Amino acid sequence: MHVIIAGNNESEGEEAVMKIKEATVNENVEFIHLDLASLRSVRQFVKTFNAKNLQLHVLINNAAVMLVPQRMSEDGYEEHFAVNYLGHFLLTNLLCDTLKQSGRDGCCSRIITLSSDTHFVGELNLNDLQSRLHYSSHGAYAQSKLAVVMFTYQLQQVLRQEGSHVTVNVADPGVVNTDLYRNVYWPMKVFKWMTAWLLFKTPEQGASTSIYAAVSPQMEGIGGCYLYNGQRTKSADVSYDEELQKKLWVQSCKLVGISDTSCS
Ligand SMILES: NC(=O)c1ccc[n+]([C@@H]2O[C@H](COP(=O)([O-])OP(=O)(O)OC[C@H]3O[C@@H](n4cnc5c(N)ncnc54)[C@H](OP(=O)(O)O)[C@@H]3O)[C@@H](O)[C@H]2O)c1
Fold first, then answer.
1. Are 228 and 208 in contact (CB under 8 A)?
2. Could you give the CA distance from residue 100 to residue 25 in angstroms, rounded to a whole number?
3. I need a labelling partner for 236 at 20 to 30 A (CA). Which of 48, 114, 161, 226 fits?
4. What distances in angstroms separate CA 204 from CA 41, 174, 192, 242, one per listed residue?
5. Is residue 117 exposed (0-12), middle (13-18) or buried (19+ Cβ within 10 Å)?
């Protein structure tokens, strides 16, 4: 098995590679730079990946930022929307052909995209996806996590219609003790510091739903699900709005500069 750790932090990425190699005795593990805040970087990553002529059986769209101050990516997009959603949207679309070629009947390629229960309070504002008119860091994070869920459902529908052997699901890891909380207000930091051992999942526990989605035989051929604690569950009502899903898809294609039939 060949494993690629894609990320924007080379030292952390290389450390992860080393740990996986030690734990698995698999030498086919490598780090490749990927900055999801940059569409240019996403395209460069896919170019590097394609040059390796590898198959792709599992893609985990895991990266995120949370509660960052209002900032724009190099492409001029709001940072939560750019990193948590648009970067993954482009990455997935550009890797779709390889995923399709790698999957087969009884052994589908799998895409897993991380969302959060925060999506339940998210509002998708198609007229202001970049939160230019009104910015709240919580609202922007929630919108990006709702967009991820809607993209997943829309993509699964496209893949199903064309009979591809690729499935795509959302994983919600629950509340996990990670660096994601680095931008929360200090009272929350104190609360987390005092209670994390009791109330928060460990990173290993937090990863379990993504791993379940990625490798469980029970998930073979199953897509379009919102998974929480290894169970299929309902996402926010608005996430099932197919008209809104399509509109988001069309706008996203324009924002990243791809044809809106690129995954079909
Ligand atoms: N922790 C929770 O309670 C929780 C709850 C619900 C959902 N989630 C979701 O679970 C996923 C994993 O989060 P986590 O808790 O493991 O947080 P984390 O430890 O902060 O991991 C997020 C990762 O994303 C990377 N990242 C940020 N910006 C990036 C960029 N521009 N390009 C490439 N990589 C970038 C970060 O790299 P750097 O370290 O270099 O910044 C970090 O490695 C996220 O999608 C998050 O929304 C987490």
1. no
2. 29
3. 161
4. 29, 12, 17, 34
5. middle
Convert the pLDDT of each residue in 120-155 to its tens digit: 999 999 999 999 999 999 999 999 999 999 999 999
Tokens of 194: 């005092």
Q: Is the CB of 13 under 6 A from ligand 1?
A: no
Tell me how far apart the terminal alpha carbons of the chain are, to the nearest angstrom: 28
* 42, 59, 176, 229: residue to mutate for ligand 1 pocket, most atoms within 8 A of CB: 176
CB-CB contact of 110 with 167 (8 Å):
yes
CB 13 within 8 A of CB 5: yes
The reply to whether ligand 1 has any atom less than 6 angstroms from the CB of 196 is no
Looking at residue 85, its pLDDT comes to 98
Neighbours of 215 (CB within 10 A): 13
CATH 3.30.470.20 is held by the domain 59-256: no
* pLDDT tens digits, one per residue of 38-48: 999 999 999 99
What does pTM read for this prediction?
A: 0.97
> Nearest Cα to 57, choosing from 17, 14, 7, 112?
112
Measured CA to CA, the distance from residue 108 to residue 215 in angstroms comes to: 11
Regions in the chain scoring below 70 on pLDDT: 262-264
- The DSSP annotation for 119-174 comes to GGG----TT-TT--SS--HHHHHHHHHHHHHHHHHHHHHHHHHTT-SEEEEEEE--
Give the pairing of strands 231-233 and 3-7. Answer: unpaired
Given a contact cutoff of 8 angstroms between Cβ atoms, the answer to whether 236 and 212 are in contact is no
Please say if 153 is a catalytic residue. no
